[in-house]
C-alpha cells in the first residue's frame, strides 16, 4: 500500500479565520451525522462524529474539501489522505474505499463536496491560456494544497445558503470561480486533461461513460476501444493509468456496487440482483462480491442494515 501524492503539510496562517468560519457554518447546517444535500444543487455537506469503517463506494467527479477532521480514500493499493490542509479532486468515476479516520463528537469530521461539471470546466479551459504540452497520463484523482483564494470562494458559496434568494444568480458564478481556482492550482493540469477535446484522458473518460451506461452487458475490450477510437492495447494502458483498473475490472466493480445498492435499497435477493447487473453465475457473483466487500452478499447486507439501524438510535 502506498500513500499517493499527499501534499507536504504547509500551514497557511491566512486561512485560519475563514477555515474556522467555514467549519462553524457547516456544523450549524449539519445538526446530525450524514450527508446533507443543500439548496445549491451541486453542493452537499457531510458530518461524522466518529471514525468510520472502510466503505466501498463509487465516487463521481467531485471536489471534496475537509474543513475539520481527516479522511482517506483508497484506490487499489494507493491511499489518498486529505484534511483541512488539502483537498481531493475526483475527475472521473472511480470505485474506491473511503474511510473517515479522524472525528469526535466534540470535533466532528466536516466536509463539503461539490459535483464537478466537466462540460462547464471544458468551456472554462477554452477561455483560459492554451493547455500545457501533453504529458504522462495521470490518475483520475489527486490531492492539492488548499490555498487562500480557493478557501475564500468556498466560504462565499456556503454563505449563500443563508441568503436563498441570491443562490440562483450568485452560486453559478462562485462555482465557476471554484473550478477556475482548481484548474490553476498546483495539479490543475490533471483536470484540464479531462476537458481537452479528443485528448487521451478524455477518451478514457468516454470509455468510463460507456461502461457506466452499459455495465450489465458483456462488452469486449475491442468494442469499448472502437467506441472511443483507440486501439485495445492503448485503451487498456491508458485506462489503467487513470483508474488503476483495466476496463473489464472497472465494469465488474460497477456491477458489484450496483448489485449492493439494489439489495440494500430495494431489498432484492442476491441472485436477483446478480442477474440484474449481468451475472449469469450466482456462485461467481458471490465469490467476487466477497472479494470486494469482505463478506458474502447476504451477510454483508444484514450487517450494513444493523449498522444503519444502530446509527439511527
From TrEMBL:
Q: Transcription as a keyword?
A: yes
Extract the SMART domains matched here. Answer: HTH_ARAC (SM00342)
List the Pfam families: AraC_N, HTH_18
Which GO terms fall under molecular function for this chain's record? DNA-binding transcription factor activity; sequence-specific DNA binding
- According to UniProt, the name of this protein is AraC family transcriptional regulator
Family matches, as Gene3D superfamilies: Homeodomain-like (1.10.10.60)
Identify the keywords attached in UniProt to this record, alphabetized: Transcription, Transcription regulation
UniProt xrefs under InterPro entries:
Homeodomain-like_sf, HTH_AraC, Tscrpt_reg_HTH_AraC_N
Species per Swiss-Prot/TrEMBL record: Tahibacter aquaticus
Q: Where is the HTH araC/xylS-type domain?
A: 205-303
Amino acid at each position: 500500500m502506498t500513500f499517493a501524492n499527499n501534499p507536504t503539510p504547509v500551514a497557511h496562517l491566512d486561512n485560519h479565520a475563514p477555515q474556522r468560519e467555514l467549519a462553524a457554518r457547516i456544523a450549524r447546517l449539519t445538526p446530525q451525522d450524514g450527508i446533507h444535500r443543500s439548496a445549491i444543487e451541486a453542493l452537499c455537506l457531510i458530518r461524522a462524529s466518529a471514525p468510520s469503517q472502510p466503505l466501498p463506494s463509487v465516487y463521481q467527479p467531485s471536489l471534496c474539501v475537509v474543513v475539520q477532521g481527516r479522511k482517506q480514500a483508497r484506490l487499489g493499493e494507493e491511499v489518498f489522505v486529505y484534511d483541512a490542509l488539502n483537498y481531493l479532486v475526483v475527475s472521473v468515476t472511480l470505485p474506491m474505499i473511503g474511510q473517515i479516520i479522524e472525528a469526535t463528537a466534540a470535533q466532528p469530521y466536516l466536509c463539503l463536496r461539490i459535483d464537478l461539471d466537466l462540460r462547464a470546466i471544458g468551456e472554462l479551459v477554452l477561455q483560459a491560456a492554451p493547455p500545457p504540452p501533453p504529458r504522462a497520463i495521470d490518475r483520475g484523482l489527486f490531492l492539492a494544497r488548499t490555498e487562500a483564494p480557493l478557501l475564500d470562494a468556498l466560504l462565499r458559496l456556503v454563505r449563500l445558503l443563508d441568503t436563498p434568494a441570491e443562490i440562483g444568480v450568485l452560486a453559478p458564478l462562485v462555482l465557476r470561480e471554484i473550478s477556475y481556482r482548481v484548474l490553476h492550482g498546483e495539479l490543475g493540469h490533471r483536470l484540464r486533461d479531462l476537458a481537452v477535446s479528443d485528448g487521451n484522458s478524455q477518451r478514457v473518460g468516454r470509455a468510463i461513460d460507456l461502461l457506466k451506461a452499459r455495465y450489465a452487458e458483456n462488452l469486449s475490450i475491442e468494442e469499448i476501444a472502437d467506441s472511443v477510437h483507440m486501439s485495445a492495447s492503448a485503451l487498456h494502458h491508458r485506462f489503467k493509468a487513470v483508474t488503476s483498473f483495466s476496463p473489464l475490472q472497472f465494469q465488474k466493480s460497477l456491477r458489484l456496487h450496483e448489485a449492493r445498492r439494489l439489495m440494500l435499497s430495494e431489498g432484492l435477493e442476491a441472485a436477483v440482483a446478480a442477474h440484474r447487473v449481468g451475472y449469469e453465475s450466482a456462485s461467481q457473483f458471490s465469490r467476487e462480491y466477497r472479494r470486494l466487500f469482505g463478506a458474502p452478499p447476504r451477510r454483508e447486507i444484514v450487517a450494513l442494515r444493523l449498522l444503519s439501524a444502530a446509527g439511527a438510535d
